[in-house]
Structure of Replication restart protein PriA:
Amino acid sequence: MIPDGMAVATGCRVRIPLRNRDSTGTVLEVGPPPQTNYNLRLVSKLIDPDPLITPQLMKLGKWIAEYYVAPLEQVMRALLPESVRQEMHSEKTRKIVEIKEMPDAEALEKLAKRAPKQHIILKLLESNSGMMSLKDLGGGSVTAAVKSLVKKGHVVLKEEAVRRDPDEDQEFLESAPLKLNPEQVVALEKIVNPATNDKGIPKPILLLGVTGSGKTEVYLQGVQHALDQGKSALILVPEISLTPQTVQRFKSRFAALHDQVAVLHSHLSQGERFDEWHRIRKGEARIVIGARSAIFAPLTNVGIIIVDEEHENTYKQETSPRYHGRDIAVLRAHFEKAVVVLGSATPSLESFQNTQSGKYELVRLDQRADSQSMPIMRVLDMRIEAQKQKGRLAILSDKLRLSMEKKLENGEQIILFLNRRGFARSLQCPPCGYVCECQHCSIPLTYHRTEDRLMCHMCGYQSLPPKKCPSCGDEAIRLQGFGTQKVEEVIQKVFPQARMARIDADTMRRKNALRDTLNKFKAHKIDIIIGTQMIAKGLHFPNVTLVGVLNADLGLQVPDFRAGERTFQLLTQVAGRAGRGELEGEVIIQTFTPHSPSVQFSRHHDFDGYAEQELQFRNKFLYPPFAHCALLGTRSTHERRAEFTLENLHKRLKKDLPPQVELGEPMPSPLTRAHGQFRYHLMLKSTSARALHQHVKRILTATPPPDDVTIVFDMDALGFS
Ligand SMILES: Nc1ncnc2c1ncn2[C@@H]1O[C@H](COP(=O)(O)OP(=O)(O)OP(=O)(O)O)[C@@H](O)[C@H]1O
Ligand SMILES: [Zn+2]
């Protein structure tokens, strides 16, 4: 309860005595006290006179809690960084000593004899325009002397706030805006004067621009326009540590406004995050760049929200609340009446379909900005290569090896890409490329070693693994695969002179490791980079003339209806790293399935063609964007209990199932056991998001799990492991 006269508002933090202890909480709603038998407590203290959470953000939080079926407290935790919520890291301050009144010459002379230290301090201060930090004066060794000077009235001791700047060690040279090409001019115009609905809310914009088309320059000038209007700007990037170049470009362009740019990401220390957050809230920082959670930055008067590489999976939060940063960006822009720009060379089909249905505006950049041509794409059939290199793992085709040789001779640089993801293994036949698929869902079946079974991870269909390839009859159908480490070994043997670096989750653990390696590559201290999807994003290296994709199929073999989309995106993005300078670029794609649409359409840089056939497939099997897919899972250290709990939930969900919702069978996850926990899951599909999350919420609320079982619900799930 609120004591009389205390101005508590929604979004403020308050202290309440609970169990003899003062606890901190955030006010979700203010209203008359409810009828209850509980003993209601009075708020003992109002911490923030102004709400920490703006009304728009509060609205966003409530929406997230409902849609993603997450407890509101959990959502509040996502909204407010821990350091801010707990007041753990109050402002960092330093002590400043300032001259108040210098003693006259006579007194000064006396001081020099009797208290030489005090004399020196005064002299030092005098030669430093009367003011120095206590630390610079000598810190602990002079505190006593300074105190005496304070007592005598010669100096004063003050506290001054200092900002913990995460990029303190870096310098950013101001970059001038480029003269836009005609396509960019049109794009910027649409952002500056967006189409609006009848309530004056701008329509979201999908900026579909081929790799190297100058999307970033359009973002920069769009942000500039918002600032000129006195508004603030929010820029989301997939992952700060993976996109150092994009962040650098923003920091450089707005270098003159240095203190108005805030960066939010997971590598900040608690103190840095505290400072950045409060600078934003006070309106000192009006440009915010950050990863997913920066969508909750406490900016006011937002003019523009940009989501760079909007198709990236990293925008989806993997713990509850499992929100999608891009979707929340669109929603926040709507609440704030701001323009939102989703940019990508390979947009998600969800966003693209929204342009087809008229919900979003489609803006295109079809040419590379500096009139470089798109790289030449070659597709290499590894089935033939596998026969040639009998018995060995076919990692490097002759064609790719020869091309690498030539580039190295010319002093040009090479990126080798290995798209290795997921744990799920499907069965593929090397001589013919055939992959075992589910007849109902058209996704690869996953091989479960322990049961010696093939399973469909969408619907639960099971079958025995074939002894021979059903397509060509060869017995070579088997599990296969190689990782980046193996590739590095092989390349090292073939090109002993070349300088190379491997970029993957294992080698890039150290903070700034990626930035440092990329800087070395830029300075041409490295000839070849071998990497996973970590290197597919937004990199710009003019001297890279060859990109090799070692096995394009790996991404196609995961039990996920988005596997094709992801492969198309990765191939297109990776290919876009080649030929970004004066020299022409070449891309060699090694694959066992040269005719798959992902390979063929990316080869021709044809997003529209790809989207058209993929949307047909999605429509036929009723997958997103034509339906919502969600995953309901159980996790427990006791396998039977995880299984049993899910079966029980399944039974209850089946009863009164809304007609729009389709319910899959419970089954072990492809990643059957992780962190000592057994995992089971089932899929839900629905043409109505609301019908789905309401039904699940009702059942989950009525069916609390046993203590040793955790329930996971993932609305609009992106992964199915
Ligand atoms: N109007 C312009 N005139 C000249 N050069 C330009 C112009 N706009 C962009 N560029 C340059 O073209 C190159 C590619 O631009 P940019 O990196 O912004 O493209 P992008 O669309 O963001 O690419 P990607 O999607 O591959 O990350 C950069 O070197 C950039 O400086
Ligand atoms: Zn199936």
Observations:
- DSSP finds 22 helices and 27 strands in the chain.
